[in-house]
Amino acid sequence: METLETQTQVTLAGAGPGDPDLLTVAVLREMMCADVILHDTLVSAEVLALAGPQAQLIETGKTGFGPSMKQGDISSLIVRLAQEGQRVLRLKSGDPGVFGRLGEELDALDAAGIAYRVLPGITAASAAAASLGQSLTERGRNRELRLLTGHDADGLAEQDWAALARPGAVAAIYMGKRAARYVQGRLMMHGASPATPACVVENASRADQVIRPATLATLPTVTAEAKGPAVILLGLAPRDARTALKEAVL
Questions:
Q1: Where would I find the Tetrapyrrole methylase domain in this sequence (predicted)?
Q2: Catalytic residue among 19, 21, 35, 62
Q3: Residue 126 to residue 87: CA distance in whole angstroms
């Protein structure tokens, strides 16, 4: 009797935010068995080093505002390799279901009649919040958490700005470095305080991680300092800074 794993031709998995210790056991096993690993540019070298010796590594090269492999070409490559009988691992930074275009690749596999499974990964927002010593949700503070993209197919992404401007609101903004001033303006137009805490976490969980505390007033300037991939956390500050602020008030 075949198991789900033996029937599967393609696995779509999350590599986590970059620290290999945050890779799930299931994804590690698949990396060790795959014939071909199609990975995003943001998957760290430390994670890729865990691939089995037989695995062919192919970078699919999707970067913000830079040279990118078209999504249709990536989906076609996944299908072709699977049809050739290869055991294919599509490895995405973070979680494949969080702004990872997972649905488009699943549609291509469905259309080709190719079996697949999805393995989740730790998304950047979780890793970034952990680096601050903060919880993404907290009783008495926020009853919801929003994961947003700074850009969509139409350009700068529109959001529910009124909800995001409420005191206590928490959101993680992916691909938001070039949208920081736009976000700032929209939130202030809807009544958000310039003193609203924020934080820009660059290279979350990696050895070169940088945490940049900010407020809504300083967000564009602070965000511009980040050179690597960064997630913007609205409504959160590093715990040590928050503690210092409380002590100053007392």
A1: 10-219
A2: 62
A3: 30
Identify whether residues 54 and 136 lie together within a single domain.
no
Residue where a domain stops, chosen among 119, 148, 165: 119
Strands, E assignment, the chain: 10-14, 36-39, 56-59, 88-92, 116-119, 146-149, 151-152, 155-156, 171-174, 197-202, 210-215, 230-234
pLDDT digits (tens, 9 = 90+) for 128-157: 999 999 999 999 999 999 999 998 877 888
The catalytically annotated residue of 19, 21, 35, 40 is: 40
- Both 102 and 133 in one domain: the answer is no
Q: Active site includes 177? A: no
Q: Which residues pair with 202 in a beta bridge?
A: 210, 230
- CA distances, 15 to each of 40, 158, 160, 234 (Å): 10, 28, 30, 24
The question of whether 19 is a catalytic residue gets the answer no
Each residue's pLDDT tens digit, 76-112: 999 999 999 999 999 999 999 999 999 999 999 999 9
Query: Which of the listed residues 119, 149, 172 is the one where a domain comes to its end?
Result: 119
Spatial contact of 169 and 136, defined as CB atoms under 8 Å apart: no
- Structure tokens, 174: 């992916």
Q: What is the pTM of this model?
A: 0.87
Contact criterion met (CB below 8 Å) for 123 and 14: yes
The range of the structural domain enclosing residue 154 comes to 124-249
Instruction: Determine contact, residues 106/113, Cβ cutoff 8 Å.
Output: no
Confidence at 250, pLDDT banded by 50, 70, 90: very low
Separation CA 18–CA 127 (nearest Å): 9
